[in-house]
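Board notes (copied after class):
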Amino acid sequence: MQLIDILNTLTYIALFLALLWMGKWAYRLINPKINIGNELLEKDNLAFGMVQVGYYAGLLAAIGGVLIGPSRGILHDAMDIGIYGILSIALLNLSALINDKLIFHKFSIKKEILIDQNKGTGLIEGANYLATGLMVHGAVMGEGGGILSMLVFWSLAQAGFILAARVYALATPFDIHAQIEKDNVAVGIGYSGALIAMAYLFMTAIKGDLVSYADHLTNLAIDAAIGFLFLPLARWATDKVFFPTHNLTDEIVNQQHPNLAAGLIEAFAYIGGAVLIGWLI
């Protein structure tokens, strides 16, 4: 590796650290009543820590879409990282608002995370940030796209996330809102896995060079349809393959202490299946 390559790498790292700082500043600006340091260091709020990890992981995934691929020069790359990074910060925070108001609208997510320290809710909020970051990663990776395509695919993905939440609710024989509000971490793990799985399918559908909107929209529609069919099938397969002598719902809902291991296996089934589908199509 030549000296110029090392300097360029250090420049990219510095830009990313600057965006992390901007992301932290934006989060504080949008949530002025939240004392981040107090939640993490004084209250040892694990639920809020999950939110923060998901937020920065989503930002990392989004910026990664800009970094992958051939360089067009350090100045041009720096401009792309700055523009798409700032836009990604805005979209991540807007996605959280959509998650709060349109998906988990039956209770206050902030109250669950900050007051009740509900780890199931923290997982879902963090997963929502990561899911948005994965989708943005796919939208900005490759040539031919731009800010408009990024906004178009982000909007479609948010609609897909809302529909996926409805499909998940239909596929599960319990009230997910009630279980999350009861601090059922196992249910939060399972739903988070489903959300990330759908985001991965959306990402694989739109990544690459944007030759035409028609091609990308067709791929997105096909992958979304596969995902909506896959969610209930994956849950059924998890129940039959991993718990042949038990019932998945009983393990994560119908017992005094929900089985976190069962929730993890359910989440793995969604994510692992989505990765396999992404490899095959």
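Comment from the instructor: The mean pLDDT is 87. Residues 160 and 224 are 7 Å apart (CA to CA).
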